[in-house]
Design a protein that fits this description.
By secondary structure, the protein is an alpha+beta fold. About 45% of the residues lie in helices and about 15% in strands. Helix 3 packs across helix 4. The model has no long low-confidence stretch (mean pLDDT about 85).
């Protein structure tokens, strides 16, 4: 009886180790979205810089950053002519990239064959407006920097979809519905860029920007469990 109990415990430990290894393997596959997001950002950065649009990326937080100096005049929410050009290049880049990581309302739509072989998808794509902390003065169009940031983000969004209407149609499918991924938010001075040194004016200059923030579909832990169970049954 003792030998039988020891044998059962040994088998249990082996199965537990196997389950843990399989769970880790599947979870790594499901949670590789951050790596995919970084690749998307680098692709967008490369395309935009080749067009002369100087952007920066933050792969850790999933952000592509456009300084307001190339987009807006001080205290103004309408894009400058050179800003329209920059957003035009961004719209074209998104029109090329998004079909690989989003869906479309048309149920018969299929991903382009040229897309990377990846299961990861974009859940949301936020056009974020940010300003510095200097109070607005000399006008009544905007009550404060928060209003200005929202107006700038909204105008950037409108320019994107005017130039590339298909960008507004890209969506994330869940529960049978396909919800648009492109959206707008404004933060005023509430989310400054992390301090990388420089003068006060240099820091404020970095804070004045439009961010494009990518959120990926979060893996469902239940998917991992079901995938492991399927592997165990197969093996």
């Amino acid at each position: 009886m003792t030998d039988m109990m020891v044998g059962l415990v040994f088998i249990f430990i082996i199965l537990l180790m196997y389950f843990a290894l399989q769970f880790r393997d599947v979870t790594e596959q499901l949670s590789g979205a951050d790596k995919t997001r970084a690749e998307i950002l680098r692709e967008l950065e490369k395309t935009l810089k080749s067009k002369g649009v100087q952007v920066t990326i933050d792969t850790q937080n999933g952000v592509l950053r456009l300084p307001d100096a190339i987009l807006f005049d001080s205290g103004v929410a309408n894009l400058m002519p050179q800003g329209e050009v920059a957003i035009g290049h961004l719209a074209s880049a998104l029109a090329d990239v998004l079909p690989c990581y989003t869906d479309a309302p048309d149920p018969n739509w299929h991903r382009p064959k040229s897309c990377p072989d990846t299961p990861h998808r974009i859940e949301s794509l936020y056009v974020e407006g940010h300003t510095d902390d200097v109070p607005l003065s000399g006008g009544i169009q905007f009550r404060d920097n928060w209003d200005l940031s929202v107006a700038r983000a909204t105008n950037t969004y409108r320019a994107l979809v005017r130039i590339s209407p298909e960008v507004a149609l890209r969506c994330a499918r869940r529960a049978g519905e396909c919800e648009p991924v492109l959206s707008v938010s404004g933060y005023g001075p509430q989310r400054p860029v992390p301090d990388h040194g420089g003068t006060v004016e240099e820091r404020r200059q970095r804070d004045r920007r439009i961010d494009l923030r990518i959120l990926m579909v979060t893996p469902d832990s239940g998917d991992a469990v079901r995938a492991v169970d399927k592997r165990l049954r197969r093996d």
